[in-house]
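In the current project phase, work has continued on tokenised descriptions of protein folds. One protein thus recorded appears below exactly as we store it.

——
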Amino acid sequence: MAMTTEETPGFNARLWQRFVTIARPYWLSDERWPARGMLALLVLLLLGQTAFSVLFNQETGEFTSALAARDTDRFWASIWRYTAILVAAVPIYALYYYVRDTLGLRWRRWLTDSFLARYFHQRAYYRLNTSGIDNPDQRIAEDINSFTQQSLYFSMIALGSVIDLVAFSSVLWTISQGLVYFLLGYAILSTVFTGAVFGKRLIGLNFRQLQREANFRFSLVRVREHAEPIAFHDGEAREMSALQRVFAAAYANYQQVLRWQFKLNLFQYAHSFLTIVLPTVIIANEVLSGKLEVGRAIQAAGAFAAILSALTVIVQHFEGLSRFSAGVDRLHAFSEALGDEAGQPASAADDGTQIHTVHGFDLALERLTVLTPNREHLLLEELTLAVKPGEGLLVVGPSGTGKSSMLRVIAGLWNTGSGEVTRPAGSDMLFLPQQPYLPLGDLRCQLTYPQTERDISDEELLQWLEQVNLPTLAERFGGLGAELDWSRVLSVGEQQRLVFARALLAKPRYLLLDEATSALDAGNEERLYGQLAVLSITPISVSHHQAIVKHHHWVLELPGNGSWTLHEARGYRWGP
């Protein structure tokens, strides 16, 4: 969760451009022909709905006139026609909603896949943590769904309004031209009034509500994920207070939403109730004088309502459109952020200087200068060294001096600074953080991640567990196929040994360890580093444990302020 720098949305040309930017790729993708076919079918069904609506309107006027004239034959003939129209119309209406929702679902699947691909491309998900984009999880899981469904919903409403306007205008024009002129003026005034009074205010409030609801959900998830340390610290009161503050912000904003929705509802209901009586008042004299049948008056009222609904579609759906506008802006901001990350993987200075990474057989750093991502603090200056396979490098120094940052640079997560990193490509270099990552899945998945499709026998996997002193782990939890929340059922020490087994199984040439054995006793730590030597895996370690110096050839000491000293491990004296 992060504070956002996004602009408050509104109904304007920019909103339309953002909508097109998000929507266009699907309709030009490999799925374009099935999608366009379903859209064409949807338009045909919409035309069918309008045609049936006109027929219903005509027959309603017909049997009403028959009742007023007490014409039995005319009445029953109209009822039979109405029934036949109804039987034909029902499948059209049902099929319309099925096709619309199916198309929306397929669009959501494609758009979700597209955003996920961009989210994981060049580690954008990692770098977005420092951007102004809040809650990317909500934007992928919820905003995309809302966008696809509501895009079709409002598009069909808009198209349907145009079709209704054309179809019913001809009907109403033959009955009362005065009603048509009145309609145009009434619709223009009500639409302008709604946009001017409620527009920017409601859209902005709904935009902020989406943010604050997402922040509240994020805070709840955070409590669930950190339940044990919160319990150890007796932090319940503090966490509840923090959650209440986040919820209070959402509550206060929604109170404003409700107040403006109340005002909007006052106008909308007054507007809708007036449309019931106004057409009758306008044509009352013609009916009372006998110039117009009662049924024709009913038909005129129905056509009037249909045309007015078409002309004032924004007024009727303003609340939903305001939420849709907010969602479009959030999704567009997310898309733009992903585009920026793809174009430039990490922060660089205005003059274009950044750390460059090239692939080679050995690990080497050439005049490496490392800055924090905001470029405000110098962590490491002009470091040059080479670590050949089998040598090993131990990085030591006080907390906050850039030890972990240097590993992030080597791993390719940071490039803020200058200089060059030469490193092996792909699986020849792995990184183990202090806090192990255990993905969702079974125990077998924990050992083979991220290449979980590898075909490795259970016997071999059990042997690797034994190598890291976890010989009974699989047996304890029901075998390698057991699926549990491993980060909760295992201690931190067990987690560190489990991911170490994963690294041994992968057999990289270089292994970056950021205090990856911090929770282990000396015996287990010695055993794991011994396995690295057996497999010819070269460790690049950050640690505060003196006992592992002997497993490295070099010791890099970082005292702070960007300075550094390189020592041979043999004879290195730990501490001041």
User: Anything to note?
Assistant: The radius of gyration is 34 Å.
